[in-house]
UniProtKB/TrEMBL annotation:
Broad EC category: transferase
EC annotation from Swiss-Prot or TrEMBL: 2.7.1.2
Family: Belongs to the bacterial glucokinase family.
Protein name from the UniProt record: Glucokinase
Keyword Kinase: yes
Keyword tRNA processing attached: no
Catalyses which reaction(s): D-glucose + ATP = D-glucose 6-phosphate + ADP + H(+)
GO terms under cellular component: cytosol
GO MF annotation, one: D-glucose binding
Main location as per UniProt: cytoplasm
Binding positions for ATP per the UniProt entry: A7, D8, V9, G10, G11, T12
Length: 317
């Protein structure tokens, strides 16, 4: 019996899995840099799973998907969808934005797979938004239509970063001077953490000690570096303001979800941060957002689950 597969492709890793009746199984993770092209990475998975024959697949990828040619934003991979389907000998192949997949996972996530931050109650079939700091910053909306849930693609991670407090201004000025533009992705991603840290260190005339986002996060959580703590604190504040903007954009009465590979490493820190306060700090529109719930996605395989939901919706069993 032929099988379906799904892949979740970020700027650093590609995770591949087999689709089952209940979700996904046989998940394997590979480093993107270990393969010259995406077909070689997926072929490696097929080779690692010799007992199965795959005929249909869905790839969720961290870049815009606007036509046959796909070019990653934060990695060197580029490919033709038609050529890839032929190379992998598939009957059907779908390539979707990674946050299209994340959005499709939201209707199938249970209460045990999310962590609510603050107050608010979701309205059934209300608009939903999801954003996820990782290698980059993905953003997606999903809305209920007469034919079911429909995602609204976009590149919301690349909107302008809007400073809210004086510390934000310090970060904004650093980004303007070093990059020429301050975008949301440059503060809400792995490098965004490092950008905030560098800005605050420079502002305090302190040495820039850490070079990796994980080092900053560890130092903040361990309480061994005040600037790292301030960095993570500001990161959560910025996420809160951004989430509130998403709520205003589309009346997301179904909730705002945080995905990606960074935020779920420190859920308690987020819970105790100013995230929710900044989410609700919308002046005369505070009443508009205060009842909208915010969640952290705790399910590590939500991208794969969403890709599987999309694939099953668009193919026969």
């Amino acid at each position: 019996m032929s099988q379906k597969f799904v892949a979740d492709v970020g700027g650093t890793n590609i995770r591949v899995a087999r689709v089952t009746e209940s979700g996904v199984a046989d998940i394997k993770k590979y480093m993107c840099n270990d393969f010259a092209s995406i077909d070689l990475a997926i072929a490696q998975y097929f080779s690692d799973m010799p007992e199965y024959s795959f005929s249909q697949g869905c790839i969720a990828i961290a870049c815009p998907v606007l036509g046959d040619q796909v070019e990653m934003t934060n990695h060197s991979w580029a490919f033709s969808q038609n050529a890839l389907r032929s190379q992998l000998k598939l009957d059907a192949l779908f390539v979707i934005n990674d946050f299209t997949a994340v959005a499709h996972s939201l209707p199938v996530l249970g209460e045990e797979q999310v962590v609510q931050i603050g107050e608010g109650t979701a309205k059934e079939n209300g608009n939903i938004a999801v954003f996820g700091p990782g290698t980059g910053l993905g953003v997606e909306h999903i809305t209920m239509t007469s034919t079911g849930w429909q995602t609204l693609d976009g590149e919301g991670g690349h909107v302008d970063f809007a400073p809210v407090d004086e510390t934000d201004v310090v970060v904004w000025r650093h980004l303007q001077s070093t990059l020429g533009r301050a975008s949301a992705e440059e503060v809400m991603s792995g490098r965004g953490l490092h950008n905030i840290y560098t800005a605050l260190a420079n502002h305090a005339s302190a040495p820039v000690v850490f070079t990796e986002p994980a080092q900053i996060t560890d130092a903040a959580l361990n309480g061994t570096c005040k600037i790292a703590e301030a960095t993570l604190t500001q990161f959560c504040r910025i996420m809160g303001s951004f989430a509130g903007n998403l709520a205003l954009n589309m009346a997301t009465t179904g909730g705002i979800f945080i995905g990606g590979g960074i935020a779920n490493r420190f859920p308690e820190f987020i819970q105790n941060s100013d995230f929710r306060a900044r989410f609700e700090a919308k002046g005369q529109m505070k009443h508009y957002v205060k009842d909208i719930p915010t969640y952290l996605i705790a399910e590590p395989d939500h991208g794969l689950l969403g890709a599987a939901a999309y694939l099953n919706q668009n193919t026969a069993s």
